Amino acid sequence: MKKMTQFSIMAVILVMTASLFSGQWSAEQKEVWKNVQTYNDLIIKGDVEGFLSYFHEDFTGWHKGSKIPQGKEARAKYIRHFAPQSETLFSNLTPLAIKIHGDIAIVQYFYADLSKSGDEKEKMESGRWTDIMKKQGAKWVLIADHGGPDSSK
Q: Taking Cα atoms as reference points, which of 60, 42, 59 lies closest to residue 51?
C-alpha cells in the first residue's frame, strides 16, 4: 500500500508539472509528442509492425535492464516475442521535456502501466524514457532511446 501511495503522489506531481509546460509547447513540439503517443498506442493495441514502423533503420536503444544497447533488428526480435505475451490494461504517458534541434527531437517522459501476463497477477510499473527522434517524411521516428522501470523487481 505504501508503494502505491508513493506512486500516486509522484504521478500527480508529474502530471501537474507536465500540464504547466504543455500549454507553452510549440506546434512542432506538440507534433513530436503526438508521434510518441501514436507509437505507444500501437504497441498497446498489439500492432507490433505498426510500432516498429516508427524505428529508424539506424536505431540504437538501451533499456535499463539490458547489458548492452540494441539495434533495430534485436529490439524488433525482442518486441515480437514478448509483446503478444502481455496485455496492457492501463497506460499513461506524462511528457516532461521536448527539445527540438532542426530535424532531431529529444523527448523525456514518465510512464505508468498496468499490465497482465497470462495467469499472473496484474503488475503496475512506472519509469522514465528518453526518446531521440528524427523527422523522416511526415513523421518523427526513433533513432535512439534509453529508459525503463524506476526499480527492478
A: 42
Pairing of strands 55-63, 139-149: parallel
Q: How far apart are CA 63 and CA 82, in angstroms?
A: 14
Query: Which strand (E) or helix (H) includes residue 34?
Result: helix 27-44
113, 124 contact by CB (below 8 A): yes
pLDDT, one tens digit per residue, over 102-144 is 999 999 999 999 999 989 999 999 999 999 999 999 999 999 9
Which three-class secondary structure state does DSSP give residue 111?
strand
Round to whole Å and give the CA distance between 131 and 112: 16
Whole-structure pTM value:
0.83
Here the contacts of 54-59 (C-beta below 8 Å, separation 24 or greater) are 54/139, 54/140, 54/141, 54/142, 55/141, 55/142, 56/134, 56/136, 56/141, 56/142, 56/143, 58/143, 59/142, 59/143, 59/144
